[in-house]
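Supplementary Note 3. Input sequence used for the single-chain structure prediction.
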Amino acid sequence: MTKSETLLQLRQQKIVVVVRGNSEEEAFKASKACIEGGITAIEVAYTNNKASQVIERLNAYYANQPTILIGAGTVLDSETARAAIFAGAKFIVSPAFNVETATMCNRYTIPYLPGCMTITEITTALEHGCEIVKLFPGGTLGKNFLTSIKAPLPQVEIMVTGGINLNSANDWLTAGATAIGIGGDFNQLAAQGNFEEITKKAKAYREQIQL
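The predicted structure, written as discrete structure tokens, is reproduced below.
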């Protein structure tokens, strides 16, 4: 899958679930439950020290399903980005912009979605080849912040993460978000071993935004 194809799928799917997990097995099962519920873009966070193994397992498990996107999140540096890419991550997400990570992702033609909060950070990310940036924490900044950013930078595409729930998901997309990142409720359920409920919640999100 090319970089352009991955970005197109993220735009079309609109929802990315950030999966953390306290172990490799918990993160794998949570990701699988999300996919079974119809959300097929998964961001495996490197707060889990088994994230690379989870990415490898998911890619192997869904090897014949190209519409399923397995990416990496909470990538703080280029070394972690390289490890994630070699594990099979199709996109890289960071809580903040890092120029070395941008260079690494460009080298391997992998989309890089860095966390940005200011016009300066966003324009810097755009100048380093980032086609979609992450606005975090969305719940704290609010929808008016998103529309304010889009006023001087109408060309910027933004994935909003943090503080989004089932009731507000559509509102963010209507406000101009290209995609939304969710995860809090899913990770709480995963910690409880309630993977069936994760699948139900994923289906509810799919129905709510009518994908």
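The mean pLDDT is 95. Residues 189 and 198 are 7 Å apart (CA to CA).
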